[in-house]
Amino acid sequence: MFIQFMVEDQSGEILVNAVMKKYRAEAPIVAIDYGIKSYKGIGKFKRGSNAINIKSEQLLNELPKRIRAFHFALCDRANVSLFIIVDNDNRPTDDFSKQLESAVRDNNITIDRVFCIAVEEMEAWLLGDI
Predict the structure, then answer these.
(1) Residue range 13-38: average pLDDT?
(2) Which residues span the domain enclosing 23?
(3) Residues 123 and 87 sit within 8 Å (Cβ to Cβ)
(4) Is the pTM of this model over 0.85?
(5) Is the dihedral of CA 78, 75, 96, 34 positive or negative?
């Protein structure tokens, strides 16, 4: 199995990497390889492509293109999942979830994918903040 993670920042990458290392150590029977691509912030859904959106390296900027790129890179592999992990950042969670799903549906993405929306900041979970 292969899991590709897309996270909005380096602290998210550190968190996912720690969790996956622990999981792999505790469940050695299940062979899981993974990759993590971290971005420089969450960004915003934008309409239209331009150099600023692409160069900004923020996750939501150009999200459909980023997901399509992973789709094409991974679609020929068996047992592949794409996890997109983002903070909610005070957005209405249902609306945000619909926007994320729309980005996938509108681009005919067929690989398994999971949107993980942290209602609180991921860093709060990492630090054990109640």
Answers:
(1) 89
(2) 2-126
(3) no
(4) no
(5) positive
